[in-house]
From TrEMBL:
Taxonomic path: Eukaryota, Metazoa, Chordata, Craniata, Vertebrata
Compositionally biased intervals (Polar residues): 76-86
Residue ranges occupied by any C2H2-type domain in the UniProt entry: 217-247
Main localization, broad class: nucleus
Protein name: Zinc finger protein 395
Length: 495
DNA sequence: TATGCCGGGAC
DNA sequence: GTCCCGGCATA
């Protein structure tokens, strides 16, 4: 209602953003990767063999170099990463005693080595990937997956289920710790810096507590399953790419569009996932901010019932996005949703669509930033579905998330390829939702309550979430998600 | 009253 | 299959 988000946008202008972003992001990515490579460096700390590791650890040192760039990266953030590392690092001793010159050299060397070592596409081809989400001519193959075994970075994003996973579950796995942080973060919706900081802490905690846990933020924007490790970046991502502009409202809205989750997945799942992840193979559009590569740790386990995740506060602030929040509201967010009642809805995650991939906010988006992508989305919603990736993980185990069989359509060159270079996949989830909902789910429901016709039409109360209607207002109906326009259950802002 | 959306129907 | 809308439940 409050109309559009006026100000702020300029500062976040896509162009510039990308620029500095690349620097910072890359760095961050680096750091993260290092961590990935060996969870919680500080923790591992085994005295002996640490050569390589040491080297790696030094990197963070070099990383900060760029921290000055963005106002974003809070100084403390890098510091945190760095400090402990250096301290714990055996090498640090000699290191400090050396002359500054050599030190620098070392840093540089280390950096170089690292850089060359890292297989991250982001790092290696950051410039390109940043702007050009679409990998190459043939985005089809799983080319992007870095061959390197140690870190599989999906180029910065991982998202399970991709489009379809959006609204879904994986939140289950959020560890208590993480959830906590989530809450905190939510409480301060609009301050990026602060968040970043917390993010840092959070990450640390995560690493520390369990090397296997990883907090990540996934963009819930329809069709954009982007996953970033930093909430700030995610916000930025949402704001820039999806919301298009910023302003008071967008601040809050950002929260709506992403969700935090931490995943851990059995080794087996990892590969599987990656193969399924649409963009992973299609060269996921790293978008402006290549998120740090996210990966699903293999070891873990745990995680219990994900349900725990708390939904911070239903209010707009926290929103659906925040982490596990969503699931909590759902009956059995988990895997097989036996819709005791919610019947259809639960299982078919309301996800929405697909969408907007991170294409650069070119002139196009300027005029109607948010609407653009949204509209696009909506169209996709009804659009066809060239490619279809079917994810049917009937995984009983309460692992990361067991999505119901869902189909994601991946449409590449489809549609205006020029306009949407980065758009590598679009899902007509909405449609699917409608269909499935009416078909599949209904089936389920029926099965559950076979009775002649009892079919309790159960109307679950109105969710607290603001739906398109409320968000955009009637006057901007065209921005509503298709479902809303059709007076169906909103998919963009599912309860 | 405004909103969300089920159920049904037109095309 | 897509799209719309009557009408009811809810806030
Ligand atoms: Zn909607």
């Amino acid at each position: 209602m409050a109309t559009k988000r006026p100000g702020e946008k300029s500062s976040l202008a896509a162009g510039p953003t990308d620029t500095w972003q690349s620097g910072a992001e890359v760095q961050e990515t680096l750091v993260y990767m290092l961590c990935c490579g060996q969870e919680a460096p500080n923790m591992t700390e085994s005295n002996g063999h640490r050569n390589i590791m040491n080297r790696n650890h030094q990197v963070p040192v070099f990383v900060p170099r760029g921290r000055t760039e963005g106002g974003w990266t809070h100084p403390s953030a890098p510091q945190q990463t760095t400090t402990p590392t250096v301290a714990s690092c055996p090498v640090s001793a000699p290191y400090s005693s050396r002359s500054p010159g050599s030190v620098e050299m070392d840093e540089i060397m280390a950096a170089m080595v690292l850089t060359s070592m890292s297989c991250s596409p982001v790092v290696q081809s950051s410039p390109q990937s940043l702007n050009d989400p679409v990998p190459g001519p043939s985005s089809g193959g799983g080319d992007m997956e870095c061959g390197g075994g140690d870190m599989e970075c999906g180029g910065g994003e991982l998202s399970d289920s991709g489009s379809s996973g959006y609204w879904s579950w994986d939140h289950d796995n959020v560890s208590p710790v993480l959830s906590l942080s989530v809450i905190e973060m939510d409480s301060s919706p609009d301050d990026g810096l602060h968040t970043e900081l917390e993010q840092g802490v959070e990450l640390n905690v995560a690493k520390r507590s369990k090397s296997s846990f990883r907090g990540a933020y996934r963009c819930l924007w329809p069709s954009c399953g982007k996953v970033l490790t930093s909430s700030v970046r995610m916000k930025r991502h949402v704001r820039v790419l999806h919301l298009g502009s910023g302003s008071e409202q967008s601040h809050r809205e950002e929260d709506f569009y992403y969700t935090k989750f931490s995943c851990k997945a059995p080794p087996a799942l990892v590969p599987a996932l990656s193969s399924h992840v649409p963009w992973a193979s299609c060269g996921s559009p790293p978008g402006p901010g290549p998120g740090s590569c996210l990966q699903i740790p293999s070891s873990t386990s745990s995680s219990p019932s994900g349900s725990g995740s708390s939904r911070p506060s239903s209010g707009p602030g926290s929103t659906p996005g925040s982490g596990s929040s969503r699931p909590s509201s759902r009956p059995s967010s988990g895997p097989v949703s036996t819709p005791g009642s919610g019947s259809s809805r639960p299982s078919s995650r309301p996800s929405s669509g697909p969408g907007s991939a991170p294409d650069q906010p070119s002139p196009l988006s300027q005029s109607a930033p948010s609407s653009f992508s949204q509209i696009q989305t909506d169209h996709l919603y009804q659009a066809c579905t060239p490619l279809q990736v079917t994810m049917s993980c009937h995984n009983p185990a309460p692992c990361c998330w067991t999505p119901p069989p869902l189909t994601v359509s991946n449409q590449h060159s489809h549609h205006n390829s020029q306009v949407v270079r980065g758009r590598c996949r679009s899902v007509s989830i909405g449609e699917q939702w409608l269909q499935q909902n009416s078909a599949t789910n209904r089936l389920t429901t029926t099965r559950a309550a076979s009775p002649s016709r009892s079919h309790c039409s159960f109307r679950k109360g109105r969710g607290e979430a603001k739906k398109c209607r409320k968000v955009y207002g009637v006057e901007r109906k065209e921005q509503w998600c298709t479902a809303c326009r059709w007076k169906k259950a909103c998919q963009r802002f599912p309860d």
